[in-house]
What does this fold into?
Amino acid sequence: MKYISVVILIALMSWTWSLATTERGFTLEEHMRVEEGVEKDIKAFIVGRYPQTTDIYCQELYTEPITAETEMVVHFRCKSEGKAAGDETITQVFEGQIQLRSNDQFKTWSEVGGQIRAPEIEYSRGVQVSAKDPFPEAPAPGSAEKAHK
It folds into this structure.
């Protein structure tokens, strides 16, 4: 029984060593290059849609390979600030994912799917709207008749 345990242990150690030392199909530098390109595309999309936007920064941006060297998903979460009417400032969050496909190991790519949503919008120095009396009391029955007499 001891020999079987030792053989299993050595097999598992050699397997994990091979996982750690094999060359990746896609290097970290290539992931970073794709992320930078997609970040520029996202910023161009936001500025194109909201031209009053002044600051855009991506808090999260990472790639996830689907098929080795041909398909990839980019997940992101970006914040933007811009001016609204008057001196109001709008902070908006954009998040989502974009699916990329390439035939040349991501030297160039095309966007084949995904979604961008804006779940949060925050207004700073906004106008507060309030009613003086949101539920005015209805006149008592018969009081209108007394006022006209």
Summary: The domain at 22-126 is CATH 3.10.450.50 (Nuclear Transport Factor 2; Chain: A,). The mean pLDDT is 80.
